[in-house]
């Protein structure tokens, strides 16, 4: 038995001191339902595992994550099933803080397009490597929601206030190479070099003294933590305000129907 045996929706594997957490819901790897719940606890559990020195966060296939599950969101709105929304917001707070508070360095292996909550999760990691033919973006506004799951807070930490405002207020995606140039991510590499680059970074960290690395992360993240305190809850409250609006419902239904036509 390990502390990871209860995880059924995240794929968790360990190789020496490196733990890999995969979203494991191809082809689009949305983060919702049970997977959202598990993501809110996994990094707290890894914090208690002394055998782990580095975490890799990734996903299978050619897309990292499309963010939320549009079909599930549309069904919730159609059914007027709002009872689970407060728990979703609690989990969202836990996801954000658990990434920031995890002492172990987290390397995001971004194997394809990375959107919405998927982007927020990656940008809250410590080092990010993305394939250079992908895009990263936070299109919450395009479905009538505010960027409440950490995006409005973390983007400006990486690229500055004005750039962050432009991307989040328009919902535009950022090509991977541009993301690397402006400091939104660390590295954009050809797809066939992704694993080698991630492994290079991971092994370099794994060879270093764990307490020194962890103490350095804790120290640096105190600045981030100070900026997040109070703002996380406020941003999620504002997202709830947008969630209850008619424009959000209309946008979600339109997106669902558009996807259905493409696939049908």
Automatic annotation (TrEMBL):
GO molecular function: catalytic activity
Domain of life: Bacteria
Cross-referenced InterPro entries: ClpP/crotonase-like_dom_sf (IPR029045), Enoyl-CoA_hydra/iso (IPR001753), Enoyl-CoA_hydra_C (IPR014748)
CDD domains on file: crotonase-like
Pfam families: ECH_1 (PF00378)
Membership in a protein family: Belongs to the enoyl-CoA hydratase/isomerase family.
PANTHER family according to UniProt: ENOYL-COA HYDRATASE, IP11341P-RELATED
Record protein name field: Enoyl-CoA hydratase
């Amino acid at each position: 038995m390990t502390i990871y045996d209860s995880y059924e929706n995240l794929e968790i594997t360990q190789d020496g001191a490196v733990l890999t957490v995969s979203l494991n819901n191809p082809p689009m790897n949305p983060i919702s339902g049970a997977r959202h719940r598990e993501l809110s606890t996994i990094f707290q559990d890894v914090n208690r595992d002394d055998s782990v020195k580095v975490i890799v966060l990734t996903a299978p296939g050619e897309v990292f994550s499309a963010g939320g599950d549009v079909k599930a969101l549309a069904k919730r709105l159609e059914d007027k099933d709002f009872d689970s929304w407060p728990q979703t917001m609690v989990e969202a707070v836990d996801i954000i803080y658990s990434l920031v508070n995890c002492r172990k360095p987290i390397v995001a292996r971004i194997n394809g397009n990375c959107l919405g909550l998927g982007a927020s999760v990656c940008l809250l990691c410590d080092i990010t490597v993305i394939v250079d033919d992908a895009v990263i973006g936070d299109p919450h506004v395009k479905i009538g929601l505010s960027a409440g799951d950490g995006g409005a807070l973390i983007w400006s930490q990486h690229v500055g206030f004005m750039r962050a405002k432009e991307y989040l207020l328009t919902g535009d995606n950022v090509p991977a190479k541009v993301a690397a140039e402006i400091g939104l991510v660390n590295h954009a590499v050809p797809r066939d070099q992704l694993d080698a680059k991630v492994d290079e970074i991971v092994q370099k960290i794994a060879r270093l003294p764990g307490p020194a690395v962890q103490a350095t992360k804790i120290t640096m993240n105190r600045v981030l933590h100070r900026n997040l305190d109070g703002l996380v809850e406020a941003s999620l409250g504002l997202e709830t305000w947008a969630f209850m609006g008619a424009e959000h419902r209309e946008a979600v239904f339109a997106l669902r129907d558009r996807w259905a036509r493409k696939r049908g």
